[in-house]
């Protein structure tokens, strides 16, 4: 009875605080990623190339960084969603895209490392913020030719690191037949390159019929096609987000024309929890096992350890929650982690060992202090007894003289 009540209370508290959900949007420049973010949130959250005055040095610069925006959304039942959206640098404009790729993969890994570190800490930080990305929307060119080499290269790096949801951007540029063919080619490319993406998992034996039906339907839609817009039009007294062309008008929420509404619903309503669970139970768990299995973490962690508290500024440092950053800075600086970067597992063990040692030393010091105080006390008592004895002996003498 009590547990039911407290569970209900906890749930209410969560609902009041809001459900935290994080989406990252990845893809080549100009595919409509930023426009999609605004369409998804129903408001202007990020600048797009149609809303920022181009070209300025500033806007060109901006596209090289990750940008995180948090929006508070509320569903029909009043449940709040704190949606964090990460707009990533567009790539494909230059010959070497490795730096853009690294920024993206490092960010994802860094969020897992933060959890690993937090889990290994002797004292937990009550204000720790879980910033793991629950879904990566991967935008694909509506070319009708499947994936490009560039996409395959990055998707391979992202594979297994997050719930990848492949999305064909600007799908208004494809006819129905072209879209069907493009979806087919993309699926083949994903399979051929063994790229792991979120495939709406279900279990024929254990899941209910509704889940099986929904998930197999959603699976049949992958990759989703979307149309985005930054503009809202008033049509017959109704506000509609859409695109106006010389030849006509498209309501981006028209499910006959794109999968936008289905994608929005699955992200923000039906599969929000599944995506979070899959991130924690499957993807993070695998990352954690690999990290702790002694093989030593790859270079990215070495870089991260360098960047913490160092003058080298890492691109994702600005996204750390301030409370965590402070604690990290302190603990890293006081430990020998910097000398031990090649094997992070050992580094973490070392951190725990150091904390334990510090605690032990503290206990020993307290014990020693206590013993000393006790001895001092005994000494004082002895002195006092001596004085008393002396007084007793001397007392009558003084009286008589
Ligand atoms: N035709 C079409 N154009 C779009 C769509 N979404 C965005 N755009 C336009 O494509 C250009 C690039 O969009 P933007 O969102 O800045 O792309 P990003 O570089 O991927 O962030 C802008 O002019 C948008 O207005 C879409 O679904 N269809
Ligand atoms: Mg953009």
Automatic annotation (TrEMBL):
Residues 312-344 are annotated as: Disordered. One of its GO terms (cellular component) is septin complex. Keywords: Coiled coil, GTP-binding, Nucleotide-binding. GO terms for molecular function: GTP binding. Its main location: other. PROSITE patterns: G_SEPTIN (PS51719). Residues 314-324, 332-344 have a biased composition (Polar residues). Residues 17-294 form the Septin-type G domain. CDD domains: CDC_Septin. It is found in: Bud neck. Residues 345-394 form a coiled coil. InterPro entries: G_SEPTIN_dom, P-loop_NTPase, Septin. Belongs to the TRAFAC class TrmE-Era-EngA-EngB-Septin-like GTPase superfamily. Septin GTPase family. This is Septin-type G domain-containing protein. It comes from Wickerhamomyces ciferrii (strain ATCC 14091 / BCRC 22168 / CBS 111 / JCM 3599 / NBRC 0793 / NRRL Y-1031 F-60-10).
């Amino acid at each position: 009875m009590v547990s039911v009540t407290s569970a209900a209370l906890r749930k209410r508290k969560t609902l009041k605080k809001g459900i935290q959900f994080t989406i990252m949007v990845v893809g080549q420049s100009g595919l409509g990623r930023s426009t999609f973010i605004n369409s998804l949130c129903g408001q202007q959250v990020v600048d797009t190339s149609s809303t920022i005055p181009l070209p300025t040095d500033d806007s060109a610069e901006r596209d090289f960084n990750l940008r995180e925006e948090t929006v508070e959304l509320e569903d029909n039942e009043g449940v709040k969603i704190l949606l964090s959206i990460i707009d990533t640098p567009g790539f494909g404009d230059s010959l070497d895209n490795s730096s853009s790729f690294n920024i993206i993969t490092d960010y994802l890994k860094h969020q897992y490392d933060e959890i690993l570190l937090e889990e290994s800490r002797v004292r937990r930080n009550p204000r720790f913020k879980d910033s793991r990305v629950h879904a990566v929307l991967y935008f694909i060119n509506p070319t009708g030719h499947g994936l490009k080499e560039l996409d395959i290269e990055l998707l391979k790096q992202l594979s297994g690191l997050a719930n990848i949801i492949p999305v064909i951007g600007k799908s208004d540029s494809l006819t129905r037949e072209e879209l069907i063919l493009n979806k087919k080619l993309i699926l083949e490319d994903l399979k051929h390159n063994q790229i792991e993406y979120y495939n709406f998992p279900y279990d024929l034996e254990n899941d209910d019929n509704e889940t099986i039906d929904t998930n197999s339907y959603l699976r049949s839609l992958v990759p989703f096609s979307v149309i985005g817009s930054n503009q809202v039009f008033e049509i017959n007294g109704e506000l509609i987000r859409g695109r106006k062309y010389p030849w006509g008008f498209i309501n981006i929420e028209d499910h006959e024309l794109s999968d936008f509404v289905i994608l929005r619903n699955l992200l923000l309503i039906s599969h929000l929890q599944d995506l979070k669970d899959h991130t924690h139970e499957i993807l993070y768990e695998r990352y954690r096992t690999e990290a702790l299995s002694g093989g030593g973490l790859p270079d990215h962690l070495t870089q991260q350890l360098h960047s913490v508290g160092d003058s080298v500024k890492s691109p994702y440092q600005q996204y750390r929650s301030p409370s965590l950053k402070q604690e990290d800075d302190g603990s890293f600086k006081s430990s020998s982690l910097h000398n031990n970067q090649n094997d992070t597992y050992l580094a973490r063990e070392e951190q725990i060992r150091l904390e334990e040692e510090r605690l032990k030393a503290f206990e020993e010091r307290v014990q020693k202090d206590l013993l000393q105080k006790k001895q001092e006390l005994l000494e004082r008592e002895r002195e006092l007894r001596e004085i008393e004895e002396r007084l007793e002996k001397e007392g009558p003498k003084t009286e008589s003289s």
